[in-house]
Design brief:
The complex is a heterodimer of chains A (203) and B (196). By secondary structure, chain A is α+β, with helices and mostly antiparallel strands. Chain A contains 7 helices and 10 strands. Chain A is globular. The two termini of chain A are 22 Å apart. A 5-stranded mixed beta sheet of chain B has the order 3-4-2-1-5, covered by helices on one side. Chain B has helices spanning 37-47, 49-56, 58-66, 70-100, 129-140, 163-173, and strands spanning 103-111, 114-120, 144-148, 154-159, 182-187. The chains are: A alpha+beta (203), B alpha+beta (196). Chain B: Belongs to the DENR family.
Chain lengths: 203, 196
């Protein structure tokens, strides 16, 4: 999505009501963020927004990029935020061979996940998010998520042998489907390390 | 920007602090994909020796390549090489451009004894005209603005004859501008500005 470099645009201060609704939306999308939300978005903070090409909006707090959002779609975390709070987002992991493709903006394909180095949610994982159990989901020592992720969910992409996340994107195929089919695209149009959004100056 | 520290007062900040490479801005473990591997390595060794030891130690490298088939390794190596070459070429081009681009400081006669000073070509050095204009205005306590040039592009116009001071100021403030690349021009009255 951000393969090309982006030129910084002027920032606008957000209304506090907009900020509040954004906060609510974040908590619904990322229930795991609940313990950290006050640190990510302090109540008194004044959030700013920056308009980016392709109807994207970037939310910036104190010159630190936090989230971006395309149109009125899902609010996605910026990778710098993911690096700060890796526990707050569901993850999948790709094998080593796929890293260089993902880091040049390719669509993430299923074999990168189903191979030995890749990690999809554990076998026999709960297929759905259960009401009231939002905070129970987590990643196990092996790097597998504790429940199946659904199509359309935002997901953080980790990499084999690396500690930090390398991309963020929306699943175009549920993880159960990926396991069953083993081919086809999984994450299209991701925000990856070193892309235009990553390099964007927000000073 | 890379810093993720926050002046937090709340109980205990959970935020992790991630070090980013000073050359390619990626987390150091991803430097190998950035195209400036050599420079990144040097930077990391100098600034974070511990991290360098962990990421670029022979054992770590071996573990990294063991997982791939020989074929894939070759392909990855070729890819990396291509990327490095590309990055180098881009850098060389950039340096070349820098060496060639000239900043013109033009003293324009406005009215017998009154002058304005126009600065052309600052943007080639990656400076933001608007900010520089503001600085100049502060420095000389005069009006200073960014104006569009008919031939396209923009220049900074400072009120008053400040060409000599401006020359020194630019050299002092922006160290990466070589002195030879600054050119002083005297523009006679009512002469249409020709872009340099």
């Amino acid at each position: 999505m951000f393969k090309k470099d982006i030129t910084p645009a002027p920032k606008q201060k957000l209304k506090s009501s907009v900020q509040r609704s954004l906060r609510q939306a974040l908590l619904t999308t990322y229930p795991l963020m609940t313990p950290y939300i006050d640190e990510i978005l302090p109540k008194k903070s004044s959030l700013e927004s920056m308009k980016l090409p392709d109807r994207n909006t970037l939310y910036v707090l104190d010159n630190v990029p936090l989230f971006y959002q395309q149109d009125t779609g899902e609010v996605m975390p910026h990778l710098r935020l993911v690096h700060r709070f890796p526990q707050a987002f569901p993850t999948i992991r790709i094998d080593r061979g796929a890293i260089r493709f993902v880091l040049s903006g390719a669509t993430l394909m299923a074999p990168g996940l189903t191979s030995k180095g890749g990690r999809l949610p554990v076998e026999g994982a709960a297929p759905k998010l259960e009401e009231g159990k939002e905070l129970d989901q987590k990643v196990d020592e092996d790097g597998r998520w504790s429940r199946e992720l659904e199509k359309g969910e935002p997901v953080v992409i980790m990499a084999e042998g690396k500690e930090e996340a390398c991309a963020v994107g929306v699943l175009v195929a549920g993880t159960a489907e990926v396991k069953a089919k083993g081919k086809g695209p999984v994450v299209e149009d991701a925000h990856f390390l070193g892309d235009g959004l990553w390099n964007l100056g927000t000073e | 920007m890379a810093d993720s520290e926050q002046p937090e007062i709340s109980s205990e900040p959970q935020s992790r602090h991630v070090t980013y490479c000073g050359v390619c801005t990626l987390p150091p473990e991803y430097c190998e994909y950035g195209g400036t591997v050599k420079k990144c390595q040097d930077w990391l060794q100098e600034n974070h020796p511990a991290l360098y030891g962990r990421i670029w130690s022979p054992e770590a490298l071996e573990a990294a390549t063991a997982a791939l088939s020989v074929d894939a390794q070759k392909r990855a190596a070729r890819d990396a090489q291509k990327k490095t070459a590309k990055a180098e070429a881009a850098e060389a081009k950039q340096a070349d451009k820098l060496a060639k681009s000239v900043i013109t400081i033009k003293r324009i006669e406005r009215n017998k004894k009154k002058f304005v000073t126009a600065v052309i070509g600052l943007e080639a050095f990656g400076l933001e005209l608007k900010k520089v204009a503001k600085d100049l205005g502060k420095k000389f306590a005069t009006g200073s603005s960014v104006t569009k040039v008919p031939s396209g592009g923009e220049e900074i116009v400072v009120q008053g004859d400040v060409s000599d001071e401006l020359h020194d100021f630019l050299l002092e403030k922006y160290k990466d501008i070589p002195e030879d690349n600054i050119e002083l021009v005297d523009d006679k009255k009512k002469k249409k500005a020709t872009s340099g």
